[in-house]
């Protein structure tokens, strides 16, 4: 019985370690890219999930920020909050719980421009499709 419990403890530890490391995914690995196509001032972004706060980042024009994660198909949700030149917008960068997931193929590429947000699911990105404007009440689809 003790050997069985030890085996379960080691197996659980290895599984937890692998699941928390994007390089060792048992599920789909996603990469989120955010590129600033804005003039000065810097774009401020803050991305987070229920479990992970990725911190605040200031992006210069043409700079890119990237993060990766292993999907939990029942719960993964990352939101990002963007601030630039007096404008303020927050939306889900990835949501596994919706029936429509814009980030297929493991890539979520957001391009931030003065008129709003664009999306591509390829890397390097194409021009991207218009996602939403900077209006805080306009949904991003």
Task: Report on this structure.
This protein is mainly β and 141 residues long. The protein has one domain: Immunoglobulin-like. Helix content is 13%, strand content 43%. It is built from one helix and nine strands. A five-stranded mixed sheet has the order 4-1-7-8-9, with no helix packed on it. A four-stranded antiparallel sheet has the order 3-2-5-6, with no helix packed on it. Strand 5 and strand 6 (87-95) form a beta hairpin. The longest helix is centred in the first third of the chain and has 19 residues, at 2-20. The termini are far apart.
Keywords:
Immunoglobulin-like; four-stranded antiparallel beta sheet; 141 residues; mainly beta; five-stranded mixed beta sheet
Main β-sheet, spatial strand arrangement: 4-1-7-8-9
Number of domains: 1
In helices, the fraction of residues equals 10-25%
Distance between the termini: 53 Å
> Helix count, per DSSP?
1
Please trace the helix and strand order, writing H or E for each element.
Answer: HEEEEEEEEE
Low-confidence stretches: 5-21
In short:
With 141 residues, the protein is mainly β. It contains 1 helix and 9 strands.
Annotate the secondary structure layout.
Blueprint: H1 2-20, E1 29-36, E2 43-48, E3 53-59, E4 64-70, E5 77-84, E6 87-95, E7 107-113, E8 116-120, E9 129-132
Parallel strand pairs: 1-7
Antiparallel strand pairs: 1-4, 2-3, 2-5, 5-6, 7-8, 8-9
